[in-house]
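fyi for ur records
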Amino acid sequence: MLLMTIATLALIEAVLRVTDPRILREDKSERSLTYSYDAELGWAPKPNSSSTVITSERTIHARHNSLGLRDIELERDPRPTMLFIGDSMVWGVDAEADERFTDLLRARITHYKTVNAGVSGFGTDQEYLWLQRIWPSVEPMVVVLTFCTDNDRLDNGTNVRYGGNRKPYFAASPAGMLELLGRPVPKSRQLYFREHWLARHSWLARFFVTAYVEIRYRQLYVPDRTELLIDKIREFVEARGAKLVIGMQHNDAQLAQHLKAVQIPFVTFDGAEAYSVSSGAHWTPSGHRLVADRLMKLLAENSIVETARSPAKP
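which gave:
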């Protein structure tokens, strides 16, 4: 009986290895290579880390500073700070650091310190929590939030995204207020794969780990609260004497109408060149230049910068 059981398990292990189900594979994205588990955020960049990330479009090099930001090290500087938050579009998937719109703007907005605090995979909900965490270290005068029209509403409406990673989420309380749920954030199957020897080496162990995580911490969906989240970000930013502006990957009519109603300055990046949709539609170097130009114009129109200076040559 014991031998039969062992033989059966060995057979299942062999079948799983041959069929190689996607759900049992180790993630090789920027999140698994450069981020770590975070009980409050789901995942967060590893401070002082560096890695080479191979995407379907390019091979890029990522380095995080001592705050966990993919940016230069923050130093004492009397200039006010302009902080950029968002997801992979800001972090710069498929882009080297100096190709990103934030780095292009650094050369053009010399009277501000520019800080890139993008985190790949974050929705507006996690960006709100991330902003609260890093604020004491950055204390910006201007916050530029980039809204990814392709997926931020999806991110904001669930507790599971991207390779099964669990995340916190906001739901409406009976009083109509936002209520933060899902914390501490459960560990994902990918984290078990990386942390435990047996799960790293056995597809059968990965199968049982996956079944446990998916059943124990099932995916939930809540109504989209994007506009309320942005209102909360604005409230947080303005209560600290700073100004919020927003850039949208593509025009989102519902969000645009809301931003006009509450008078939050915004601009859209329609027409910015991007790689294929199948690889995430991240901006090419040309796309980043267009984003930098549009943001420069928005900042000038709102008297945040003095003038829309000529763009730096590529």
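The chain is about 40% helix and 15% strand. thats all i got for now
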